[in-house]
Amino acid sequence: PALGLDLNMCGKTYKTSGNTTNLSTHLKNKHYHAFLQLKNKNARSRTSSPVTFTNSITDKPAEVENNLMESAIYDDTGTEFSKDSQSKDLWKQTTIIDVFERSSGYEAEGHKTSQINQVLVYMICKDNMPLYCVEKPGLKRLMSVICPRYKVPSRTTITGLMEQRYATTKAIVKKKLSEINNIALTSDILTLINSTRSFIVVTAHFLNTANNCTPESEHEMVTLTARRMYQAHTADYIKECFENITDEFSIEKDCILSITTDGGANMVAAVKKFLENGKRIPCLAHLLNLIVDRATRDNAPVLQIANRVKAICKRYG
After folding, report:
1. Which ranges carry the BED-type domain (predicted)?
2. Spatial separation of the C-alpha atoms in residues 314 and 131, rounded to whole Å
3. 119 φ, ψ to 5°?
């Protein structure tokens, strides 16, 4: 009988009859970077030489990205060959099966197309590029030369792929945070220039070991969210935002050591209501900004220059 299999990365359920075909197909089409890491892990485990690799597809996001970027190299025809194969015979005769696999790989749901799409999403996020860059003629021309059989996806398709990538990365982060007992948060509220849109930003800081106390522990940080705020920035509303964000990432209050914020009365009161007294740390950067601001407030020449710079930033920012 067919059984249901839950996928932790996106929460969907897939039928299985004792095999992993459906799961493998879903990973290949929807979470290709995770599929690629798993594929490389299985391939390396069959080699005779000792190799170290990550033990799951839910490791640190940075390692997942590095594995994705380093997993394959393309020649000038778009043909993939692994780094390990460079030391082997690269002139092995291509079989008919290989030719058909390469051709099918560039179809809409082919593994080649999925792999390049994931790298394209990585490029957009890493370089902070606008989504409409995929519609630029320069990129299309570049891809037509590098990989003629690959069709650059539309902005709508890239948006969907980015949302899938976000869900996958979020699952990785939640898995990582579930293993951490002590977490420090930082938070600030920003308002866009020439706009009334406000966002609350929350970042988690922790050490990369479960007990958080070994000499080998390294500081890590991850931005949990930059969430739009639709109400007045009262202490109660900010407290509600803190609760929603920590619940979303399964962070228990007992694991939160502190929250670093500016000295705004609303932020101070929100942290006090969310946690307790003594767990708010004043932000040093904000304190230095207040010191400089008050020191230059009565200095007319400096104030004149600062106002001109602010006007330029406001006009062209």
Report:
1. 8-31
2. 25
3. -65, -35
Strands 183-191 and 80-81: unpaired
Residue holding tokens 């299309």? 140
Residues near 130 by Cβ (< 8 Å), separated by ≥ 6?
124
Q: What is the pTM of this model?
A: 0.61
Gyration radius of the chain over CA positions: 25
Please check whether residue 289 lies inside any domain of the structure: no
Segments forming the whole domain that contains residue 102: 3-173
pLDDT of residue 70: 43
In a domain, 302, yes or no: no
Only one residue has tokens 């007319």, namely: 300
Number of domains making up the chain: 2
Q: Long-range contact list for 143-148, CB < 8 A, 24+ apart?
A: 146/74, 146/76, 146/78, 147/74, 147/77, 147/78, 147/106, 147/116, 148/78
